[in-house]
Design brief:
This protein is mainly α. The chain is built from 14 helices and no strands. Helix content is 78%, strand content 0%.
């Protein structure tokens, strides 16, 4: 219990330190853009906490829920010290979760914000079924849940959310084929279904295509887009290159990302590892 209290205090201190830095640099109140900036610099706890702070100045909207659940998801990944779960390590993930002092609180918070965002999006879509904003964020929130279950916890669940996400994102792209974030998310679906699911399950999930998924994300990363939208596409493409062991392209993109987000220690560690790897050959 004491360790949990210490952890909560650390988060509050981090946020208290982060918000003045942001406001001082901008000479204006923090915004959702500052939460994104923290997120893409891999300050996940601070990003999640700032999203909550911002709610005191406005409403808990879909974008706020999405950036917070994304930050909590990456925070949880760090706490579990793991990459995506693989077939056969479900028990290891369960044990790691039991040993994690703060994970239950992060999970509970994630689910609260996830359910809030899903309910809000679905309510909007009842009266505006073609609302691009609600469709996209519903799909993105659903995918965060699917990644939590399938990717981090190794549980084969969340199929209702998977189908809702797929349907929502396809609806967005039908309305707006140049929606960069929807293209990235849809590309990830193609890639993950193709690479992580056995053939029979792939068929049940509507099929996947690794090459198409990578191509879609690559195209999205090259499109004109708002700053953080481009960042999301570039980080997604970097992740895909790493998964495919395409280290030349991954390193080139990581170097670019490190210049844009110099505080991101995950990118810095990757580049240091690649430098060491080349030096030992």
């Amino acid at each position: 219990m004491c360790r949990a209290k210490v952890s909560i205090c650390c988060v509050l201190v981090a946020v208290a330190a982060a918000v003045p830095r942001i406001c001082a640099a901008q000479a204006e109140p923090a915004t959702i853009a500052d939460a994104y900036r923290l997120f893409y610099n891999a300050h996940y706890e601070e990003a999640a906490a700032l999203a909550v702070t911002l709610r005191s100045f406005g409403t808990q909207d879909l974008e706020n829920d999405e950036v917070r659940t994304s930050a909590l998801l990456f925070q949880l990944r760090g706490l579990l010290k793991g990459q995506d779960a693989r077939e056969g390590d479900k028990t290891d993930k369960a044990e790691a979760l039991k040993r994690c002092v703060t994970c239950s609180d992060v999970l509970a918070t994630f689910m609260t914000d996830l359910r809030h965002g899903q309910a809000l999006a679905r309510e909007i879509l009842k009266t505006k079924p073609n609302d691009e904003y609600a469709l996209f964020f519903l799909g993105k929130l659903d995918l965060n849940y699917v990644w939590l279950q399938l990717g981090l916890l190794g549980k084969k669940t969340g199929w209702d959310e998977y189908w809702e996400a797929r349907k929502s994102l396809e609806a967005v792209l039908k309305l707006n084929p140049n929606h960069v974030r929807a293209r990235v998310a849809r590309g990830w679906i193609d890639y993950i279904v193709n690479t992580r699911m056995p053939w029979g399950t792939r068929w049940v999930l509507g099929g996947g295509n690794k090459k198409r998924g990578i191509a879609v994300v690559r195209e999205a990363a090259a499109m004109e887009a708002e700053f953080f939208t481009r960042a999301e596409a570039e980080f997604a493409l970097w992740d895909l290159h790493v998964r495919e062991r395409d280290f030349l392209r991954a390193t080139e993109l990581a170097q670019k990302l490190s210049r844009t987000f110099p505080d991101n220690q995950e990118v810095a560690r990757y580049l240091a590892k690649r430098t060491t790897s080349r030096a030992t050959r």
